[in-house]
TrEMBL record:
Classification via Gene3D superfamilies: Apoptosis, Tumor Necrosis Factor Receptor Associated Protein 2, Chain A
Listed name of the protein: MATH domain-containing protein
Pfam families referenced in this protein's UniProt entry, alphabetically: MATH
Matching PROSITE patterns: MATH (PS50144)
SMART domains: MATH
Family matches, as PANTHER family: MATH (MEPRIN-ASSOCIATED TRAF HOMOLOGY) DOMAIN CONTAINING, MATH DOMAIN-CONTAINING PROTEIN
Gene (UniProt): math-28
Organism name: Caenorhabditis elegans
Length: 728
């Protein structure tokens, strides 16, 4: 309940004489309190620190009391305090209540003391709907903290207070202070004024500052009345900090309104300003689309202007603008195609920006969740007449949408638990059975993680393959439902399989399992028998036979379209002269760049084995970071398209490799897969999530080329020269 301080028993000794004072306040109209409402005592400056009592009700209907200690307006000092606080409630019926706490407080914080719930408070302590509060404070220790601070002020006159509707908002022009764009954002939040400091998102800037400090909002009247409250700032990237219930709207109108307007002052003290290269939350994709709308003076009530469709990350997006009840309403449509038996959700932050040719702009932030063909709507962006007066030039305005997609969740129903399989549209349903076997040879020379593969056999139009592996001194057997490409898997197979280990000496071993194949890869028995027991009891002439007796229960054909092109890639390369390849010699093939990363395949002769890897090739810049979650398959392809395929899941956070150092023995590849001393290697990669933080020094340039039909052969067009990092 007390997140802003540490509470503990303090020693009885202190440095220097103790300083004491009391604050009193009569809280009124408590029975009419609503969630978020606050009452403030007058501010007192004692021992160089301003103190104030704040009475409020939170959303759990608990009345709370804050002892607010901050800084004087023109004072940038920061304190560390050890204090003892005693809280007393008094009523005319002589009922009382007290609570004592000892606290360690760093200034610019609020000490929250929980009281009784509202009903008990009214019943036991309120006389004429008021209660007298007294807080006795003993300062046990006071130290000044040394720190560097950056201070600036923003002012904004809120206009036309009388016509404000609920959820209507205004904001100041953007001002850059300490390399960060700032503005004041105000809104009528039911019966309150909502007041926030906004760290704006700017086009073509890194937007990766981590900012800590304090913002104090002030209101002042002609009669000398003042009202203020301060709030801690902790912003990691663009966002807002402030109060949804800064002051009651009726109090604002009655005490501070002058000619239907009031001026808000934001005094900002930044105590920490640094780059935050790893953002919280998996930001994977960001983009900006811009749409110019013309003829806006002739737009009628209820009419909608529709922008052109633009594709970003293979998803079509459209901006729309509507005139509704005298306000501008902005829509962003996500028209991503939905595939049968697939559920997807896009989570994003959308910064909508109204841009004028006169240099003015207005920005709003909206969190959005898109499912199928979905839309993000921002109601009451600004009044239509204000847009015409302040932003429209030659009857045109521009709307920008700055979108950060921080998560895409895809659920393929064919990957769900078998209990959900009855939800699928079944196109085929049948039962069948088959038998597959192969002989494991050279058992005595097997190394840990070495594998041998049986031949691929098609049964019921499905390719199957057995694999034997030495894993931690045990025999592991897997049956693969061996589709050729992880991007085209389109079957859900339910089967029963009996794995058998058969020896020519008469010994045998069996194990029965239920298998569900909804994604590429193998399933089977991890530890069928210890390897030493395999050699002693089953191997004859260094060989043993493994069998799979399979009963197919159900096969469901799924309508599965290929993954969008930007989410997958295929790399392929023919490796030549393999007979002359020396030990530890690499053959690299860099074929494609995806997400500004170079991907390639490497093949290496490693201690008599084929080592096959997917490689992230290029180096990172300073302060650049990536997290790339992948699912991929590596294949070695020989004569008559005979192949060995293995499946992997790996998250890359730096340049490196992932694959198998013992894909198969080198001599087996040469004897069974090589054609004219060559073999083909292939990687099919699916990008699940990509989280990218660009290097500190980066920029983008934009240039619109018009009048395309009149461009002549070899004619050149140039953008304006821009200076970035002192370079034109």
């Amino acid at each position: 309940m007390f997140p802003l301080y540490n509470e503990f028993l303090l020693p009885a000794v202190s440095s220097g004489p103790r300083k004491k004072f009391s604050l009193t306040y009569a809280a009124k109209n408590l029975s009419q309190f609503v969630a978020g409402e606050k009452q403030f005592s007058n501010e007192k400056v004692l021992f160089g620190i301003p103190w104030r009592l704040v009475v409020f009700e939170n959303h759990d209907e608990i009345v709370g009391l804050s002892l607010s200690c901050g800084q004087c307006v023109q004072d940038s000092r920061k304190w560390s305090l050890s204090i003892e606080v005693e809280l007393k409630l008094m009523s005319s019926s002589e009922k009382g209540f007290s609570k004592v706490r000892r606290l360690l407080v760093k200034t610019l914080t609020k000490i929250e003391l929980q009281l009784l719930d509202t009903e008990d408070l009214i019943e036991n302590f309120v006389s004429a709907e008021s209660v007298r509060i007294q807080v006795d404070v003993k300062i046990l220790e006071q130290k000044e903290l040394k720190y560097e601070t950056k201070i600036f002020e923003l002012t904004y006159p809120i206009q036309n207070l009388a016509r404000f509707e609920n959820r209507e908002s205004q904001s100041s022009d953007v001002r850059e202070c300490f390399k960060v764009p700032w503005s004041i954002f105000v809104e009528k939040n039911h019966d309150f004024l909502s007041c926030h400091l906004m760290y704006e998102k700017e086009l073509c800037t890194p937007n990766d500052w981590h900012i800590q400090g304090v913002c104090t909002f002030y209101l002042k009247s002609d009669e000398g009345k003042s009202f203020c409250n301060f709030y801690e700032i902790d912003l990691k990237g663009p966002g807002t900090s402030g109060d949804d219930h800064f002051i009651k709207w009726e109090d604002l109108i009655r005490n501070y309104s002058i000619d239907d307007s009031v001026t808000v002052i934001a005094r900002v003290q930044i105590t920490s300003l640094k780059r935050s290269f790893m953002k919280e939350g998996p930001i994977s994709k960001s983009f900006v689309i811009s749409q110019q709308f013309g003829g806006i003076s002739s737009v009628l009530e209820g009419e909608t202007l529709i922008g052109s469709e633009e594709k970003r990350f293979n998803i079509p997006w459209t901006i729309k603008m509507q005139r509704r009840s005298g306000f501008v309403v902005i829509f962003l449509y996500c028209r991503r195609k939905s595939y049968p038996h697939q559920i997807w959700t896009v989570y994003a932050k959308c910064w909508f920006k109204l841009v004028s040719a006169n240099g003015k702009s207005l920005m709003r932030l909206q969190n959005a969740v898109f499912q199928c063909e979905d839309t993000c709507e921002l109601d009451k962006f600004t009044r239509w007449e204000d847009m015409m007066t302040d932003y429209a030039i030659d009857d045109y305005v521009t709307i920008e949408a700055h979108v950060e997609i921080y998560d895409i969740v895809e659920k393929d129903i064919d990957l769900l638990a078998p209990s959900l399989s009855n939800a699928l549209d079944e196109q085929t349903f049948y039962a069948g059975s088959f038998f597959s076997a192969f002989t494991i040879s050279n058992i005595s020379r097997f190394e840990d993680d070495e594998k041998q593969w049986g031949n691929t056999e098609k049964r019921y139009n499905i390719p199957w393959r057995l694999r034997a592996k030495k894993s931690f001194d045990f025999l592991e057997i897997n049956l693969f439902c061996d589709e050729e490409n992880i991007m085209t898997t389109n079957k859900l197979v339910e089967a029963e399989c009996t794995f058998c280990l058969v020896s020519s000496n008469g010994n045998s071993l069996k194990q029965k399992l239920k298998l569900y194949f909804g994604r590429p890869g193998g399933q089977g028995v991890c530890r069928l028998v210890e390897w030493s027991e395999l050699e002693e009891d089953y191997a004859v002439n260094d060989r043993v036979v493994i069998e799979a007796h399979v009963k197919i229960k159900k096969v469901r054909e799924l309508s599965h379209e290929p993954l969008p092109i930007e989410r997958s890639c295929v790399l392929s390369h023919t490796v030549r002269n393999i007979a002359n390849m020396e030990e530890s010699n690499f053959i690299f093939n860099i074929t494609e760049e995806w997400y500004y990363v170079l991907w390639g395949i490497s093949l290496k002769c490693n201690s008599g084995f084929v080592e096959l890897q997917l490689n992230w090739e290029n180096e990172l810049f300073e302060n650049e970071s990536w997290t790339i979650q992948t699912r991929f398959q590596l294949s070695l392809i020989g004569a008559n398209e005979k192949r060995i395929t293995q499946y992997f899941e790996h998250t890359f956070d730096k340049p490196g490799s992932s694959g198998d150092s013992k894909f198969l023995r080198w001599e087996d590849m040469v004897n069974n897969y090589a054609i004219e001393d060559s073999v083909r290697v292939e990687a099919c990669v699916r990008f699940i999530h990509v989280i990218a933080t660009p290097p500190q020094k980066s920029f983008a340039m934009f240039y619109t080329l018009g009048n395309l039909s009149n461009v002549l052969e070899e004619e050149h067009h140039f953008s304006l020269t821009e200076k970035h990092f002192e370079i034109p």
